[in-house]
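Question (not urgent): is this output format expected?
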Amino acid sequence: MAECEQLIKVLKKQLKARGVTYQEVADALDLSEGSVKRLFANGGSLSLDRLSAVCCLINMEMAALFKLVSEDSQSLTTLTRQQEEELVADKALLLVAVCITNGYRFEQILAQYNLPETLLIQKLAHLDRLKLIELLPENRIKLMIAPSFSWIAGGPIQQFFQQQVIRAFFQSHFSGEDEKLVMSTGLMSLPTNYKFQQRIQRLVSEFYESCNHDSELTMNERHGTSMVVAIRRWTFPLFDEFEVDEGASSELTK
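Got this back:
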């Protein structure tokens, strides 16, 4: 039963990453949305035929899904707050962690950054203790992060990103041929907001798929590239003083 639960967990993660809704799954299986939710809540009742149909819906081979399940069960899905604090507190350790999650090999890190070989080995050994990687003979690196890995919401890494990375990232006019900034505002219902969140998740998946597609190119042909996408219900605070007080508005309409 534990294996079935793991399978459902990874499958739901893949559905979310592609922006596929329960209703779309229901249509593919010729079931009601409620039946699909109950099916996913009780993974043991998901037949191979139905699993195959869901995999076809998201254009994924069943073998690839089973491989993700195996990797997910053996790999790290999150760090503790203390472990995240260790990364943030050590700039060199954080640099090496970012490099290995982006697919750098040992010699590529040495070639690009001014890190002594002994220090790099120390930092890799530290990441090995954190279970982020497995440091293999001849300084080969095996990434041990599960496909479902995530940072703690509001944790040290996320706070570091919001306080330092975002500020540095937006110090640009975004006028170069390799950069683009778009901000859109409008009035939107919550259901439409949720649909856009699913599209954003799909875009993020495409970003990583594109990076993986370019992994066969040389390091000189690839460049560090970051994408920040966000959506929230929000109005510019500068205009708050002009907002009509909702309580006062209700009194006027009585």
